[in-house]
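Researcher: I'd like a structural prediction for the single chain below. Treat it as a standalone chain; there are no partners to consider.
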Amino acid sequence: MHDLVIRGGTLVDGTGRAPRMANIAVDDGVIAVVGDVAAKGRQEIDAAGMIVTPGFIDLHTHYDAQVMWDPVLAPTAWHGVTTVVMGNCSVGLAPLRREDRHFPLSVMEAIEEIPREVMEEGIEWSWESYSEYLDALEQRSHTLDVATQVAHIALRAYVMGDRAAANEPATDEDMAEMERLAEEALRAGALGISGSRTKAHHYPDGGRVPGTLANEHELLGLADALGRVRGGQSMQYLGNPFDLDNDLPFIKEMAVRSQSPMQYIMSENDWQRRFAMIEQSVDEGLEFYGHIPPRGVGMVGHWRCVEYPFSVAAPMRAIEDLRWEERLEQLRDPDVKARAIAETKEADRGFFKAHSFDRMFEVTDYPDYEPDPETDSIAAKAQAAGRDPYEVVYDIMMGNGGTGMVYATVVNYRHGDHDLTRQLIQHPRAVVSLSDGGAHTTRVCDAAQTTFMLAHWARDRTRGEKLPLETVVQYLSRDAAFAYGLKDRGVIHEGYLADLNIIDFEKLRLPAPYVANDFPGGAHRLLQKAEGYEATIKRGIVTFRKGEHCGAFPGQIVRGPQMAPENLEAAD
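Model: Treating it as a single chain, here is the predicted structure.
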């Protein structure tokens, strides 16, 4: 008798092969049989009429804090994800001295918009070294597997203290210690090192976050440390797309010195040059991956957002601290509305300064993430109705009892469709990434991108070519897992982890995001659920059934790259 048998499903196995009918048997958390299964299971699931996929891998999350108080890791776990990678973008929480946590927390708050008071309330500070951090994680329950990276800014803060916050350059002695700690973290189980030199990371007052533009020799030193370990871990880099003449040779030098997989965070900006560098590097024997978001990356605007439309206006600031019911009553006042619109127009900053009306859209009950700017944008709707676009946005946000939202694209949507995105994610060195799960908690909700990928790219797209279902599943599972050296998952084949999804593909839908007050201290955040997931299974244990958590926590902390089963060649 097997532990679990899934019968009658259409197998989309993660390899890119065409879907096929097959049964699956699971024993001891591992796939035992794919094909005919004669023996019964202690638990059996009828998957007739549904697809069965590997569990999905989310390579770019910021759950470094939330993992300390949330064993489920919502909303990511709601969307078929069974493994997350955190510690991205050069920010993390280890190594860390409890008494010196002000700077690392201020950086996490500034870059990833996780409120400091939420982290202080939710985290039990019980570690200092990176190894102790992993031990602290292992003492907690987890629905899915959690893999970590050691972050450059965290290393800097630990070694340099106040000098890191003052953005002083690292000395040779500082670098020697940072490299030692990086090696220690990699040997303890970090999946890689993350670094950044982006100009986009800054404090709310506009000041640049210390460390993001640190001397290049710091990141090169960490690349050297990675090269000394040579354990298959990766170097992740968020660079400066506005200075590719210097940035591209620099990232290549990091790859050469680390002799390790390079994970390069990208977008549509100058993609030809960046992929050309990747292709040349691969031809020279280096391992490179370009991380691409599968849709336009943008901000959701609503009344409870950290920076919302009209938040620069004095009438808005005057009522921000009121209870929501009292604030909503004020927002309905025509005089407050008129003054907020007038002052917002006069201001040379804020939401509307950063986002244009022709790339701003209403969030509907089941959002279309490839809307047509010519007909669906705020600009188009305002023009068609002969109305002021500011008033249109205000009225949208007042809809549904003040819970209405607008969505403004930032990158990956400059042409107003997903044709270029399709080209990018199909590049042989691309991996689908950048969900930012756990970050930007009141104005971004891209953690649902796995569900979006399946529904939009494999089924619903109308404004261009779709992608085959088996290709989309391959992107979300095997390709993502293997890029980071997690070669024990992402494929439905004997010997691999029994991380699985059973999905009613025709019913798969993505409702609109909503605001929940479930963070520590009652803080609010955006969440987004999914419809159509019959079951999600982690290590052979059913963790979700019909979208509801089953109370099981079979997830583990991933310590370093994972070996493939002996039959990897057959799975390939």
